[in-house]
Design goal:
single chain; about 325 residues; alpha/beta; TIM Barrel; 8-stranded parallel sheet; 16 helices; about 50% helix
């Protein structure tokens, strides 16, 4: 099935083989002797443990070529799932300890995106995550660094990181300025923190999409607002379970939010770190959350409509998806 993904962090989507090679290259962690050891390193107890592990693996990205090759290989793997369009996050300021200049990381990722589109026919646009954990005081400096790259591939800014430590409203000024400069604006909200964070992303940051947003279910007024305004939610089911937001599929509110008419997309977040893929996430919608094939088709189209692709590009992607469903009409009828 042709797919569009809107919430994937390139920093969490490396291939295990490539990260293992980097660990060996830089004489890294003596506890990581095999791919199996590395896979076990990505079992999390809670969200803070996930953040800690995130910065642990960042130690092994030390040169621009490490970033370029990682992103290139990641996009190659994503193309095997028939992901035809992707809007991916990355945070070039997460690697200060490695001494890599942030603008060099931006350029390396741009190089990888262009190579991958040529070689694998996967279109990738980039959203730069200014990251809560780096503080709000110098967020405008981070925006200034990436502004010269704004264009065909760099299209927006995001706000990820520790939602509970750095509240959403603290970044209002930088989001106002980013919009003035022409950036699309999205923010993680309603993952660790509840509906208050989502309201802040909407009211204070005036974002165009909400990353996660699942805890909107706790506030009926917010659910109704999201339904009326059709603000897209970038939901990542496996991620929410792996970080302990929900205990299992039966607790996850995706199906309930969908039934209430919210504009939902499904995504893989940090697929390597969470042991998932976008194909897995769609499979979970069907097998675990009991969405029908027609409902899954609607989720698929939601992703196209919620993307920042130009209208002409959206039309071509939807035509591709429609051909898929026409060719598989018998499956839909049987469902």
């Amino acid at each position: 099935m042709p797919k569009v993904e809107l919430h994937l962090h390139l920093d969490g989507a490396f291939t295990l083989d490539f990260l293992f090679d980097l660990i060996q290259k830089y004489d890294g962690d003596p506890e990581i002797k095999s791919i199996a050891d590395l896979r076990n390193r990505f079992i999390f107890t809670d969200f803070p443990h996930f953040v800690e592990t995130w910065f642990w693996k960042n130690r092994f990205f030390r040169e621009p070529i490490d970033f370029e090759e990682s992103v290139y290989r990641t996009l190659k793997e994503l193309s095997f799932q028939n992901i035809v369009y992707l809007e991916a996050f990355f945070s070039p300021w997460d690697y200060k300890e490695s001494g890599v200049v942030s603008t060099n990381i931006v350029q390396a990722n741009l190089n990888a995106v262009k190579r991958a589109e040529k070689d694998f026919n996967i279109r990738c646009r980039l959203i730069v995550d200014i990251t809560r954990d780096h503080g709000h005081e110098h967020a405008i400096d981070r925006l200034n660094e990436i502004t010269p790259f704004l264009g065909e591939e760099i299209i927006g800014i995001g706000l990820g990181g520790s939602e509970q430590k750095y509240q959403t409203h603290m970044f209002e000024d930088v989001f106002d300025e980013a919009k003035r400069r022409g950036f699309h604006c999205v923010a993680h909200a309603g993952e660790v923190m509840g509906p208050k964070s989502i309201w802040s992303a909407i009211k204070d940051l005036k974002v165009e999409r909400i990353g996660h947003g699942v805890r909107a279910i706790e506030d009926p007024e917010l659910v109704e607002y999201l339904r009326i305004e059709q603000i897209p939610l970038e939901i990542c089911v496996v991620s929410n379970i792996k970080t302990g937001i929900y205990s299992g599929f039966t607790d996850h509110p995706f199906a309930e939010l969908f039934s209430k008419g919210l504009l939902l997309t499904v995504n893989s977040d940090d697929p390597t770190m969470f042991g998932t893929t976008l194909a897995d996430e769609y499979s979970i919608l069907y097998h675990e959350l009991n969405l029908s094939m027609l409902e899954i088709r609607n989720v698929q189209i939601n992703a196209v409509e919620s993307s920042f692709a130009p209208q002409g590009e959206k039309k071509k992607i939807k035509e591709m998806m429609n051909r898929f469903w026409i060719d598989n009409a018998m499956s839909i009828t049987n469902d």
